[in-house]
Specification:
There is one protein chain. The strands form two sheets. Strands 1, 2, 3, 6, 8 and 9 form a six-stranded antiparallel beta sheet that branches. A three-stranded antiparallel beta sheet has the order 5-4-7, with no helix packed on it. It has one helix and nine strands. Helices cover about 10% and strands about 25% of the residues.
Length: about 150
């Protein structure tokens, strides 16, 4: 699984990012069950110590929309949450570091399954200010949470 993810980073993400970057070493396998929440509260990732410049990506493993999806504001300070329509085969990108996002209780009758990960352009990386991941308790630094992409 890790080899496949690293191949994806090389073949798909490198051309998209187009500059030196670090990536989340292991993607988050997310399951948003029926009548449940996938994450506890609406938030932006900066609230949890993630560095400015980090970009969120979602690879949907199931089609999902409405309350089974991720809801994201269009820009900081706006109150316009919109549920993303996620389809298998897509790659979704958003600025989860600055945009408030989360999910509602899933009342669609179908679970959402996805792989979620983050990319940090190398020029934003500052090891000296790395905080700790809330969920994994790993340092948000190269070698722990991140891995540097090498061509």
């Amino acid at each position: 699984m890790v080899a496949l993810y690293e191949r994806f980073i090389q073949e798909v993400m490198d051309p998209i990012v187009g500059m030196p970057f670090l990536y989340q070493k292991f993607p988050t396998f997310r399951v948003h069950l029926r009548n449940n929440l996938a994450v506890g509260a609406f938030h932006n990732d900066a609230q949890f110590g993630h560095p400015i410049g980090e970009i969120n990506y979602i690879i949907p493993l199931t089609d999902s929309s409405g309350s089974a999806s991720v809801c994201v504001k269009s820009e900081p300070g706006k109150g316009d949450f919109k549920a993303m329509k996620l389809q298998v085969g897509q790659l979704i990108e958003f600025n989860g570091n600055q945009l408030i996002h989360g999910n509602m209780t899933n009342v669609t009758g179908k679970a959402r399954v996805s792989l979620d990960f983050r990319i940090l352009p190398a020029h934003y990386y500052q090891e000296s200010v790395a905080s700790e991941s809330i969920t994994l308790k790993t340092k948000l630094k190269e070698g722990d949470y991140y891995k540097r992409f090498q061509k």
